[in-house]
Amino acid sequence: MAQYRCIRMSLMVLLFGMAIPMAQDNQALTTVSSVDLSRYVGRWHEIAKIPNRFQKKCVGDTTAEYSLRPDGQIDVLNSCRVADGTIDTARGVAKIVDRQTNARLKVSFVQFLGMRLFWGDYWILGLGDNYEYAVIGTPGRKYGWILSRTPQMSQENLEKARQILRQQGYRVESFQ
Hints:
By secondary structure, the protein is α+β, with helices and mostly antiparallel strands. It has helices at residues 2-26, 37-40, 155-167; strands at residues 42-49, 58-68, 74-82, 87-96, 104-108, 110-112, 115-117, 120-127, 133-137, 144-148. The radius of gyration is 19 Å and the shape is globular. The model is unreliable at 1-25 (pLDDT under 50).
């Protein structure tokens, strides 16, 4: 009888342990209340990311350069150093989805016959007071980035960014 009680208790602990991450995954993401796009554009350095297939070849020096366009969209130029030392680039466009806050965008790097295809979420979850760092995520938490205006980030700001990710239900240990 004690053996069955031990098995039941182990199963309960296991199920409870699985429920905590699922509850975090179901928590709605909250973006920052407002983004001044004129302050947001410019060069950002990738400090950390959740590994993903489209950045698989990148080994370092990853940056994103954003610039405002006359039509209200944002040009995106992503670049990174690959294993042979060359720089790989990807050009895209971001459009603002939530004009009230400017914190929810969609980004596309695929163009066919002049049409943009395959838009992905790009939500600004956190910003430093002086736009010195940004925390980016997606509603499903499959993707996430910590960006900085400088190639290195202060330990204090890095911890602030990690805290934002924790509060948003991200697993910080999944970032590299």
